[in-house]
Give the backbone structure.
Amino acid sequence: MHFDLIIVGASFAGLAAARTAASRGLSVAVVEAKREAGARVHTSGILVREAIEEIDIPHHLTRRVPGVRLYAPNMRSSDLVSPGYAFYTTRTAELLRWMANEAKAAGAHILYATRFEGAVRCGDVIRLDGIDLSTRFLVGADGARSRVARTFGLSLNRRFLTGVEVEIEASDAIDPRFLHCFVNSRLAPGYIAWAAPGPDVVQVGVAVRDGTKPDLAAFMAATEAEFGWAAAKVVGRRSGLIPCGGPLSRTAAPGVLLVGDAAGWVSPMTGGGIRLAFQYGRRAASAIADHLQSRGPAPEAVLARALPGYALKTLLRRALDLAPANPVLNLALSTPPARRLAERIYFHRRGGGGIDREAYLRWLDAEAAGRVGTGPRQV
Ligand SMILES: Cc1cc2nc3c(=O)[nH]c(=O)nc-3n(C[C@H](O)[C@H](O)[C@H](O)COP(=O)(O)OP(=O)(O)OC[C@H]3O[C@@H](n4cnc5c(N)ncnc54)[C@H](O)[C@@H]3O)c2cc1C
Protein backbone atom coordinates (compact mmCIF):
# COMPACT_ATOMS: atom_id res chain seq x y z
CA MET A 1 0.00 0.00 0.00
CA HIS A 2 1.34 3.41 -0.92
CA PHE A 3 0.50 6.65 0.92
CA ASP A 4 1.37 10.32 0.57
CA LEU A 5 2.24 10.37 4.26
CA ILE A 6 2.99 7.69 6.84
CA ILE A 7 3.16 8.81 10.46
CA VAL A 8 4.84 6.62 13.08
CA GLY A 9 3.09 7.00 16.47
CA ALA A 10 -0.61 7.44 17.25
CA SER A 11 -0.31 9.82 20.18
CA PHE A 12 -0.67 13.58 20.60
CA ALA A 13 1.66 14.69 17.80
CA GLY A 14 0.96 11.87 15.34
CA LEU A 15 -2.83 11.99 15.62
CA ALA A 16 -2.98 15.79 15.42
CA ALA A 17 -0.79 15.65 12.30
CA ALA A 18 -2.81 12.79 10.79
CA ARG A 19 -6.10 14.62 11.13
CA THR A 20 -4.75 17.80 9.55
CA ALA A 21 -2.96 15.98 6.71
CA ALA A 22 -6.00 13.82 5.90
CA SER A 23 -8.23 16.91 6.03
CA ARG A 24 -5.87 18.57 3.55
CA GLY A 25 -6.49 15.69 1.13
CA LEU A 26 -3.34 13.60 1.61
CA SER A 27 -3.62 9.81 1.81
CA VAL A 28 -2.39 9.10 5.35
CA ALA A 29 -1.52 6.00 7.36
CA VAL A 30 -0.53 6.00 11.03
CA VAL A 31 1.60 3.11 12.27
CA GLU A 32 1.30 2.47 16.01
CA ALA A 33 3.00 -0.24 18.08
CA LYS A 34 0.26 -0.33 20.74
CA ARG A 35 -2.96 -2.24 20.26
CA GLU A 36 -5.05 0.99 20.45
CA ALA A 37 -4.71 4.73 21.00
CA GLY A 38 -4.75 5.49 24.71
CA ALA A 39 -3.31 2.13 25.78
CA ARG A 40 -0.65 2.34 28.53
CA VAL A 41 -0.78 6.13 28.93
CA HIS A 42 2.62 7.44 30.08
CA THR A 43 1.78 11.10 30.64
CA SER A 44 -0.07 13.13 33.29
CA GLY A 45 -1.98 14.62 30.37
CA ILE A 46 -2.41 18.08 31.91
CA LEU A 47 -3.12 20.67 29.25
CA VAL A 48 -2.44 24.38 29.18
CA ARG A 49 -5.33 26.44 27.87
CA GLU A 50 -3.60 26.98 24.53
CA ALA A 51 -3.70 23.22 23.92
CA ILE A 52 -7.47 23.21 24.28
CA GLU A 53 -7.72 26.08 21.83
CA GLU A 54 -5.51 24.23 19.37
CA ILE A 55 -7.80 21.25 18.76
CA ASP A 56 -11.14 22.05 20.47
CA ILE A 57 -11.21 19.11 22.86
CA PRO A 58 -14.70 18.08 24.00
CA HIS A 59 -15.47 19.53 27.41
CA HIS A 60 -16.40 16.17 29.00
CA LEU A 61 -12.84 14.88 28.53
CA THR A 62 -11.34 17.59 30.74
CA ARG A 63 -11.53 19.23 34.15
CA ARG A 64 -10.73 22.92 34.48
CA VAL A 65 -8.16 23.76 37.17
CA PRO A 66 -7.79 27.53 37.49
CA GLY A 67 -4.68 27.96 39.66
CA VAL A 68 -1.40 26.59 40.93
CA ARG A 69 -0.57 26.16 44.62
CA LEU A 70 3.21 26.20 44.81
CA TYR A 71 4.79 24.64 47.90
CA ALA A 72 8.30 25.41 49.15
CA PRO A 73 10.20 22.53 50.81
CA ASN A 74 8.98 23.77 54.23
CA MET A 75 5.39 23.33 52.86
CA ARG A 76 4.63 27.06 52.92
CA SER A 77 2.55 27.68 49.83
CA SER A 78 1.63 30.53 47.47
CA ASP A 79 -1.44 30.53 45.28
CA LEU A 80 -0.70 31.53 41.70
CA VAL A 81 -3.60 32.55 39.50
CA SER A 82 -4.23 34.50 36.34
CA PRO A 83 -7.92 35.34 35.94
CA GLY A 84 -9.21 34.05 32.63
CA TYR A 85 -6.54 31.36 32.41
CA ALA A 86 -6.83 27.71 33.44
CA PHE A 87 -5.16 24.33 33.14
CA TYR A 88 -7.12 21.25 32.16
CA THR A 89 -6.62 17.77 33.54
CA THR A 90 -7.88 15.09 31.19
CA ARG A 91 -9.39 11.66 30.82
CA THR A 92 -6.19 11.02 28.90
CA ALA A 93 -6.86 7.60 27.38
CA GLU A 94 -10.30 8.76 26.22
CA LEU A 95 -8.77 11.95 24.80
CA LEU A 96 -6.36 9.90 22.69
CA ARG A 97 -9.18 7.62 21.51
CA TRP A 98 -11.19 10.70 20.56
CA MET A 99 -8.20 12.06 18.61
CA ALA A 100 -7.84 8.71 16.81
CA ASN A 101 -11.52 8.80 15.83
CA GLU A 102 -11.15 12.38 14.58
CA ALA A 103 -8.15 11.38 12.45
CA LYS A 104 -10.07 8.40 11.06
CA ALA A 105 -13.12 10.55 10.35
CA ALA A 106 -10.85 12.85 8.34
CA GLY A 107 -9.74 9.84 6.27
CA ALA A 108 -6.53 8.61 7.95
CA HIS A 109 -5.90 4.85 8.29
CA ILE A 110 -4.54 3.77 11.67
CA LEU A 111 -2.62 0.49 11.80
CA TYR A 112 -2.37 -0.65 15.43
CA ALA A 113 -0.06 -3.36 16.77
CA THR A 114 2.31 -2.43 13.95
CA ARG A 115 5.86 -1.52 14.93
CA PHE A 116 8.11 0.62 12.75
CA GLU A 117 11.47 -1.21 12.63
CA GLY A 118 13.23 0.74 9.90
CA ALA A 119 12.88 2.03 6.34
CA VAL A 120 14.84 2.67 3.18
CA ARG A 121 14.58 5.45 0.68
CA CYS A 122 14.36 4.41 -3.00
CA GLY A 123 14.27 7.56 -5.13
CA ASP A 124 11.18 9.54 -4.11
CA VAL A 125 9.67 6.66 -2.16
CA ILE A 126 10.34 5.45 1.38
CA ARG A 127 9.66 1.73 1.98
CA LEU A 128 9.08 0.47 5.51
CA ASP A 129 10.98 -2.65 6.62
CA GLY A 130 8.91 -5.79 7.17
CA ILE A 131 5.55 -4.10 6.41
CA ASP A 132 4.09 -3.76 2.93
CA LEU A 133 3.90 0.03 3.14
CA SER A 134 5.54 2.84 1.24
CA THR A 135 5.19 6.59 1.33
CA ARG A 136 6.27 9.87 -0.23
CA PHE A 137 6.79 11.46 3.20
CA LEU A 138 7.47 9.89 6.61
CA VAL A 139 6.81 11.62 9.93
CA GLY A 140 8.38 10.31 13.13
CA ALA A 141 5.93 11.05 15.95
CA ASP A 142 7.29 8.10 17.89
CA GLY A 143 8.25 9.76 21.13
CA ALA A 144 11.30 10.47 23.24
CA ARG A 145 13.40 7.56 21.92
CA SER A 146 12.48 7.79 18.27
CA ARG A 147 13.24 4.83 16.04
CA VAL A 148 12.59 7.01 12.99
CA ALA A 149 15.33 9.39 14.18
CA ARG A 150 17.78 6.50 14.59
CA THR A 151 16.89 5.00 11.21
CA PHE A 152 17.62 8.24 9.35
CA GLY A 153 20.61 9.40 11.41
CA LEU A 154 18.74 12.39 12.92
CA SER A 155 19.38 13.99 16.32
CA LEU A 156 18.40 11.98 19.41
CA ASN A 157 17.16 13.26 22.76
CA ARG A 158 19.99 12.89 25.27
CA ARG A 159 18.69 14.67 28.36
CA PHE A 160 15.61 13.47 30.21
CA LEU A 161 13.55 13.87 33.33
CA THR A 162 12.02 10.66 34.65
CA GLY A 163 8.44 10.88 35.89
CA VAL A 164 6.20 8.48 37.82
CA GLU A 165 2.61 9.05 38.85
CA VAL A 166 -0.19 7.18 40.61
CA GLU A 167 -3.90 7.73 40.10
CA ILE A 168 -5.75 7.56 43.40
CA GLU A 169 -9.37 7.69 44.48
CA ALA A 170 -9.20 10.57 46.94
CA SER A 171 -11.71 13.21 45.89
CA ASP A 172 -11.25 15.45 48.94
CA ALA A 173 -7.49 15.03 49.52
CA ILE A 174 -6.61 18.23 47.67
CA ASP A 175 -8.18 21.62 47.00
CA PRO A 176 -9.57 21.11 43.45
CA ARG A 177 -9.01 24.74 42.44
CA PHE A 178 -5.29 24.14 42.15
CA LEU A 179 -2.57 22.05 40.61
CA HIS A 180 -0.44 21.41 43.67
CA CYS A 181 3.24 21.70 42.78
CA PHE A 182 6.01 20.89 45.27
CA VAL A 183 9.51 22.25 44.88
CA ASN A 184 11.91 20.12 46.92
CA SER A 185 15.49 19.27 45.97
CA ARG A 186 15.59 16.21 48.23
CA LEU A 187 12.31 14.61 47.13
CA ALA A 188 12.21 15.89 43.53
CA PRO A 189 15.76 16.90 42.53
CA GLY A 190 15.76 18.88 39.29
CA TYR A 191 12.00 19.11 38.87
CA ILE A 192 8.86 19.01 41.04
CA ALA A 193 6.33 16.69 42.64
CA TRP A 194 2.64 17.33 41.99
CA ALA A 195 -0.91 16.44 42.91
CA ALA A 196 -3.55 17.25 40.32
CA PRO A 197 -7.34 16.99 40.52
CA GLY A 198 -8.18 14.86 37.47
CA PRO A 199 -11.72 14.49 36.13
CA ASP A 200 -12.14 11.16 37.96
CA VAL A 201 -9.04 10.63 40.12
CA VAL A 202 -6.29 12.56 41.86
CA GLN A 203 -2.94 12.23 40.09
CA VAL A 204 0.09 12.30 42.40
CA GLY A 205 3.53 12.22 40.84
CA VAL A 206 7.16 13.16 40.96
CA ALA A 207 9.76 13.75 38.26
CA VAL A 208 13.51 14.04 38.71
CA ARG A 209 16.58 14.99 36.66
CA ASP A 210 18.88 12.57 34.84
CA GLY A 211 20.91 10.26 37.04
CA THR A 212 18.40 10.14 39.91
CA LYS A 213 15.47 7.82 40.51
CA PRO A 214 12.00 9.19 41.30
CA ASP A 215 10.86 8.04 44.75
CA LEU A 216 7.12 8.68 44.81
CA ALA A 217 6.65 6.67 48.01
CA ALA A 218 9.09 8.98 49.81
CA PHE A 219 7.25 12.07 48.56
CA MET A 220 3.86 10.68 49.60
CA ALA A 221 5.21 9.67 53.03
CA ALA A 222 6.66 13.16 53.53
CA THR A 223 3.32 14.82 52.71
CA GLU A 224 1.06 12.22 54.35
CA ALA A 225 0.26 14.46 57.32
CA GLU A 226 -1.12 17.22 55.04
CA PHE A 227 -2.98 15.07 52.51
CA GLY A 228 -3.66 11.62 54.03
CA TRP A 229 -2.76 9.68 50.88
CA ALA A 230 -2.51 6.37 52.77
CA ALA A 231 -6.29 6.06 53.03
CA ALA A 232 -6.76 6.35 49.26
CA LYS A 233 -6.96 3.47 46.79
CA VAL A 234 -4.40 3.43 43.96
CA VAL A 235 -6.24 2.72 40.68
CA GLY A 236 -3.60 3.43 38.04
CA ARG A 237 0.06 4.19 37.34
CA ARG A 238 1.83 6.19 34.64
CA SER A 239 5.53 6.72 34.06
CA GLY A 240 7.97 7.72 31.37
CA LEU A 241 10.84 9.83 30.13
CA ILE A 242 10.46 13.55 29.44
CA PRO A 243 13.01 15.06 27.02
CA CYS A 244 14.35 18.26 28.60
CA GLY A 245 17.21 19.35 26.36
CA GLY A 246 15.02 21.58 24.16
CA PRO A 247 14.28 21.25 20.42
CA LEU A 248 16.79 19.02 18.60
CA SER A 249 18.98 20.42 15.84
CA ARG A 250 18.66 17.83 13.04
CA THR A 251 15.04 16.74 12.79
CA ALA A 252 14.66 16.23 9.04
CA ALA A 253 16.12 14.24 6.15
CA PRO A 254 14.81 14.17 2.57
CA GLY A 255 11.16 13.09 2.85
CA VAL A 256 11.41 12.59 6.63
CA LEU A 257 10.46 14.85 9.54
CA LEU A 258 10.33 14.38 13.32
CA VAL A 259 7.55 15.95 15.41
CA GLY A 260 6.59 16.03 19.10
CA ASP A 261 8.90 14.43 21.68
CA ALA A 262 10.87 12.82 18.85
CA ALA A 263 11.97 16.34 17.83
CA GLY A 264 12.55 17.44 21.44
CA TRP A 265 9.54 19.78 21.34
CA VAL A 266 9.08 19.85 25.11
CA SER A 267 9.44 22.90 27.32
CA PRO A 268 12.79 22.29 29.08
CA MET A 269 11.49 24.00 32.20
CA THR A 270 7.95 22.70 32.67
CA GLY A 271 8.27 19.33 30.89
CA GLY A 272 5.04 20.11 29.03
CA GLY A 273 4.98 18.75 25.48
CA ILE A 274 1.35 18.16 24.58
CA ARG A 275 0.51 21.67 23.40
CA LEU A 276 3.63 21.72 21.23
CA ALA A 277 2.72 18.27 19.90
CA PHE A 278 -0.73 19.56 18.90
CA GLN A 279 0.38 22.90 17.53
CA TYR A 280 3.47 21.89 15.57
CA GLY A 281 2.14 18.43 14.70
CA ARG A 282 -0.65 20.20 12.82
CA ARG A 283 1.73 22.81 11.44
CA ALA A 284 4.07 20.08 10.16
CA ALA A 285 1.17 18.30 8.45
CA SER A 286 0.07 21.52 6.76
CA ALA A 287 3.61 22.25 5.61
CA ILE A 288 3.94 18.70 4.20
CA ALA A 289 0.61 19.13 2.36
CA ASP A 290 1.83 22.45 0.91
CA HIS A 291 5.11 20.82 -0.08
CA LEU A 292 3.56 17.77 -1.76
CA GLN A 293 0.52 19.45 -3.30
CA SER A 294 1.83 22.90 -4.25
CA ARG A 295 5.63 22.59 -4.34
CA GLY A 296 5.79 24.59 -1.11
CA PRO A 297 9.07 25.06 0.80
CA ALA A 298 10.70 22.20 2.72
CA PRO A 299 8.48 21.52 5.77
CA GLU A 300 11.44 21.64 8.17
CA ALA A 301 12.23 25.19 7.01
CA VAL A 302 8.61 26.24 7.67
CA LEU A 303 8.76 24.73 11.16
CA ALA A 304 12.16 26.17 11.99
CA ARG A 305 10.70 29.65 11.47
CA ALA A 306 7.64 28.88 13.61
CA LEU A 307 9.19 27.11 16.62
CA PRO A 308 9.70 29.16 19.79
CA GLY A 309 13.11 29.76 21.36
CA TYR A 310 13.63 28.50 24.89
CA ALA A 311 16.45 30.71 26.15
CA LEU A 312 14.92 31.58 29.56
CA LYS A 313 13.48 28.12 30.13
CA THR A 314 16.76 26.40 29.19
CA LEU A 315 18.58 28.67 31.63
CA LEU A 316 16.08 27.86 34.37
CA ARG A 317 16.41 24.13 33.57
CA ARG A 318 20.18 24.39 34.14
CA ALA A 319 19.53 26.14 37.47
CA LEU A 320 17.01 23.46 38.50
CA ASP A 321 19.42 20.68 37.49
CA LEU A 322 21.78 22.03 40.14
CA ALA A 323 19.02 21.23 42.69
CA PRO A 324 19.60 24.18 45.05
CA ALA A 325 19.51 23.21 48.75
CA ASN A 326 16.06 23.24 50.33
CA PRO A 327 16.82 26.15 52.74
CA VAL A 328 17.80 28.25 49.69
CA LEU A 329 14.53 27.31 47.97
CA ASN A 330 12.55 28.13 51.14
CA LEU A 331 14.08 31.58 51.19
CA ALA A 332 13.75 32.20 47.45
CA LEU A 333 10.12 31.09 47.23
CA SER A 334 9.10 33.41 50.07
CA THR A 335 9.96 36.51 48.00
CA PRO A 336 7.56 38.42 45.69
CA PRO A 337 9.99 38.30 42.69
CA ALA A 338 10.05 34.48 42.92
CA ARG A 339 6.26 34.42 42.92
CA ARG A 340 6.15 36.71 39.90
CA LEU A 341 8.66 34.49 38.07
CA ALA A 342 6.62 31.39 38.94
CA GLU A 343 3.45 33.09 37.69
CA ARG A 344 5.23 33.96 34.48
CA ILE A 345 6.41 30.37 33.99
CA TYR A 346 3.01 28.84 34.70
CA PHE A 347 0.79 31.42 33.04
CA HIS A 348 3.05 33.05 30.45
CA ARG A 349 1.53 36.38 31.58
CA ARG A 350 -1.74 35.48 29.82
CA GLY A 351 -5.23 35.97 31.18
CA GLY A 352 -5.39 38.42 33.99
CA GLY A 353 -5.89 42.01 33.00
CA GLY A 354 -7.87 44.16 35.36
CA ILE A 355 -9.26 41.58 37.80
CA ASP A 356 -8.51 41.92 41.50
CA ARG A 357 -6.47 38.84 42.50
CA GLU A 358 -7.86 38.36 46.01
CA ALA A 359 -11.44 38.78 44.77
CA TYR A 360 -10.71 36.21 42.08
CA LEU A 361 -9.45 33.73 44.68
CA ARG A 362 -12.58 34.28 46.78
CA TRP A 363 -14.72 33.79 43.68
CA LEU A 364 -12.94 30.50 42.91
CA ASP A 365 -13.56 29.48 46.51
CA ALA A 366 -17.26 30.23 46.17
CA GLU A 367 -17.39 28.43 42.83
CA ALA A 368 -15.75 25.35 44.35
CA ALA A 369 -18.32 25.42 47.13
CA GLY A 370 -21.13 25.63 44.55
CA ARG A 371 -22.03 29.21 45.46
CA VAL A 372 -21.12 31.07 42.29
CA GLY A 373 -21.67 34.77 42.81
CA THR A 374 -21.42 37.71 40.45
CA GLY A 375 -17.70 37.16 39.83
CA PRO A 376 -14.68 39.24 40.76
CA ARG A 377 -14.96 42.98 40.38
CA GLN A 378 -13.00 44.80 37.71
CA VAL A 379 -10.30 47.13 39.05
C1 LIG B 1 5.33 11.12 33.49
C2 LIG B 1 5.08 12.16 32.43
C3 LIG B 1 4.18 13.19 32.69
C4 LIG B 1 3.96 14.17 31.71
N1 LIG B 1 3.02 15.12 31.96
C5 LIG B 1 2.74 16.05 31.02
C6 LIG B 1 1.69 16.97 31.22
O1 LIG B 1 1.00 16.94 32.24
N2 LIG B 1 1.45 17.90 30.26
C7 LIG B 1 2.19 17.96 29.09
O2 LIG B 1 1.94 18.83 28.25
N3 LIG B 1 3.19 17.07 28.87
C8 LIG B 1 3.46 16.11 29.79
N4 LIG B 1 4.43 15.16 29.55
C9 LIG B 1 5.09 15.19 28.23
C10 LIG B 1 4.12 14.63 27.19
O3 LIG B 1 3.58 13.42 27.63
C11 LIG B 1 4.81 14.42 25.86
O4 LIG B 1 5.42 15.65 25.49
C12 LIG B 1 3.81 13.96 24.80
O5 LIG B 1 3.29 12.70 25.14
C13 LIG B 1 4.49 13.89 23.44
O6 LIG B 1 3.61 13.36 22.50
P1 LIG B 1 4.16 12.60 21.22
O7 LIG B 1 2.96 12.29 20.41
O8 LIG B 1 5.28 13.36 20.62
O9 LIG B 1 4.86 11.27 21.78
P2 LIG B 1 4.29 10.10 22.68
O10 LIG B 1 3.11 10.55 23.45
O11 LIG B 1 5.45 9.57 23.43
O12 LIG B 1 3.80 9.01 21.63
C14 LIG B 1 4.68 8.25 20.84
C15 LIG B 1 3.85 7.14 20.21
O13 LIG B 1 4.67 6.45 19.28
C16 LIG B 1 4.49 5.05 19.46
N5 LIG B 1 5.72 4.40 19.03
C17 LIG B 1 6.96 4.52 19.55
N6 LIG B 1 7.86 3.80 18.86
C18 LIG B 1 7.16 3.21 17.86
C19 LIG B 1 7.53 2.34 16.79
N7 LIG B 1 8.80 1.93 16.60
N8 LIG B 1 6.56 1.89 15.95
C20 LIG B 1 5.26 2.29 16.11
N9 LIG B 1 4.86 3.11 17.11
C21 LIG B 1 5.80 3.57 17.96
C22 LIG B 1 4.24 4.90 20.95
O14 LIG B 1 3.57 3.68 21.25
C23 LIG B 1 3.37 6.12 21.23
O15 LIG B 1 1.99 5.86 21.01
C24 LIG B 1 4.68 14.16 30.48
C25 LIG B 1 5.56 13.11 30.22
C26 LIG B 1 5.76 12.12 31.17
C27 LIG B 1 6.71 11.00 30.86
User: Anything to note?
Assistant: The mean pLDDT is 92. DSSP finds twelve helices and 18 strands in the chain. The longest strand covers residues 233-243. Residues 2-39+91-157+248-312 form a domain with the FAD/NAD(P)-binding domain fold (CATH 3.50.50.60).
